[in-house]
Amino acid sequence: MGARGAPSRRRQAGRRPRYLPTGSFPFLLLLLLLCIQLGGGQKKKENLLAEKVEQLMEWSSRRSVFRMNGDKFRKFIKAPPRNYSMIVMFTALQPQRQCSVCRLANEEYQILANSWRYSSAFCNKLFFSKVDYDEGTDIFQQLNINSAPTFMHFPPKGRPKRADTFDLQRIGFAAEQLAKWIADRTDVHIRVFRPPNYSGTIALALLVSLVGGLLYLRRNNLEFIYNKTGWAMVSLSYIHGSSQVQFVAESHIILVLNAAITMGMVLLNEAATSKGDVGKRRIICLVGLGLVVFFFSFLLSIFRSKYHGYPYSDLDFE
Q1: Over the stretch 82-104, which tens digit does the pLDDT of each residue have?
Q2: Quick check: 297 and 313 in contact, CB under 8 A?
Q3: Which of 62, 115, 125, 264 has its CA 20 to 30 Å from the CA of residue 318?
Q4: Contacts of 299 (CB under 8 A, 6+ apart)
């Protein structure tokens, strides 16, 4: 009994254990090759992304807003991988296009890009570029852009949504409005820094210099400043004191006053509806407000001088 069982045990001892089914080694080999390929592809994407970001940072160091043609647009904006946001202004700045709005919008866009480029928060998560129609007609056609200027945000992942197109017609293209829109789309807050505008100061200085020069030339004969009769002749000598009579010159004076008030209202409307530089709009608003207040007050003073007892006045010139 024991002799017959010995060979059986020897055969069992000579068998190799099987832990994997037959044909599993090719599968493992294929899985290993797939992992190596995926790892290499991921590293290739990382290297490509690093090259793109490095190139964009180099362009930004030389110019806050860099130009793009069709090839650059497809490589740096349309093609993945991308981990940055890109703001693109589609414009038509060539002189033959005669797009004055494009030039104004470009100035505001440049102010915004410079504010971001020279701020302490500048990083490689946001870039500014522009595509001119004459340099990227195919891009305009591909994106169905029919008007210029147009501002679009291209997010790090996915395609632009409807809100990624700036509503220029409703909001205007001031740098502050663009910065607010960018903050809503990217969570990047840009504080706009405008270059100082000395035009108003220079104009005031010239006016003061002119008046001072005239007074200096007449320094020995300044009695006209204290001549009340002369000032009265200048102000109300052509205004009849009765409400039943009106001089011909008085009609012309009233016409000029109404024209000045109308001009002030036009300037106020222009400042409210214009889409240009905020500093210029502020100056226009102040000039328009000054015209309305000054000349309307002068008109009320004339009216009070003719209709005695009229209770309302603004600035009293009497």
Answers
A1: 899 999 999 999 989 889 899 99
A2: yes
A3: 264
A4: 254, 257, 258, 261
